[in-house]
Amino acid sequence: MTPSTPNRPSATLPLSDRQRARARSVQLLALDVDGVLSDGRLYYDANGVEAKAFHTQDGVGIKMLLALGIEVAIITGRTSPMVERRVGELGIKHLIMGRDDKWQALSALASDLALGPEELAYCGDDLPDLEAIMKSGLGVSVPNAPTYIQENADVVTQRAGGYGAVRELCELIVDAKGQWPETMRRYLATDDTPKE
């Protein structure tokens, strides 16, 4: 029996026309790490070595955007070899670490890429992310963020950070751009589908 092709992303939130228009304009998605790509907890072993867990479904979502020519950036206040490794695995070109001034970092990157604020999406979960959430064309937060962060976002994902929130956001952007059917065809038509 041949499975049917999914008509819509399973995680797509119901969007207003305004939210959908903002998602359709996105050319660069920038993501915080702790609390967005990870669950926000810091794990240390007895030797003080830090560990992070990343959700593989988020990785596939990021690869969906990259395949459509949408830029992805990681902007984090911490410096971490684990983040460097993950970014390398996913083929993300833009990694900015050690920056709590997220909006300034994102603005500089957007300028380098000749993108306006309306073409930016930013997803974060805490105070260092707030300005970027508020000033990006599509400001996104996660349900594990403080309420006052969520209230300033255009969209709050259903899934928590570290548990598929980024995948949900990527699917939302792909769908808003009308690229969901093409994305599904690409994954179903080849044997060299990107794996996570």
Write the layout of secondary structure elements.
Blueprint: H1 17-24, E1 28-31, E2 43-44, E3 50-51, H2 56-67, E4 71-76, H3 81-90, E5 94-97, H4 102-112, E6 120-123, H5 130-135, E7 138-141, H6 147-150, E8 155-156, H7 165-176, H8 180-189
Parallel strand pairs: 1-4, 1-6, 4-5, 6-7, 7-8
Antiparallel strand pairs: 2-3
Task: Kindly list the characteristics that best describe this protein.
alpha/beta, two-stranded antiparallel sheet, about 200 residues, magnesium, six-stranded parallel β-sheet, metal-binding, EC 3.1.3.45, Rossmann fold, about 15% strand
Number of domains: 1
Our Rg estimate from Cα atoms comes to 16 Å
Helix-strand makeup class? alpha/beta
Oligomeric status: single chain
If strands are numbered along the chain, what order do they take across the biggest sheet?
A: 5-4-1-6-7-8
Number of helices: 8
Bin the strand percentage.
5-15%
Query: What is the CATH superfamily?
Result: HAD superfamily/HAD-like
Low-confidence stretches: none
Order of SSEs: HEEEHEHEHEHEHEHH
General shape = globular
Q: Output the CATH topology.
A: Rossmann fold
Helix content: 25-40%
What does this structure look like?
The strands form 2 sheets. Strands 5-4-1-6-7-8 form a 6-stranded parallel β-sheet, sandwiched between helices. The longest helix is centred in the N-terminal third of the chain and has 12 residues. With 196 residues, the chain is an alpha/beta fold. The protein is globular and about 50 Å long. It has a single domain, classed as HAD superfamily/HAD-like (Rossmann fold), CATH 3.40.50.1000. Helix 1 crosses helix 7 and helix 2 packs parallel to helix 7. The mean pLDDT is 91.
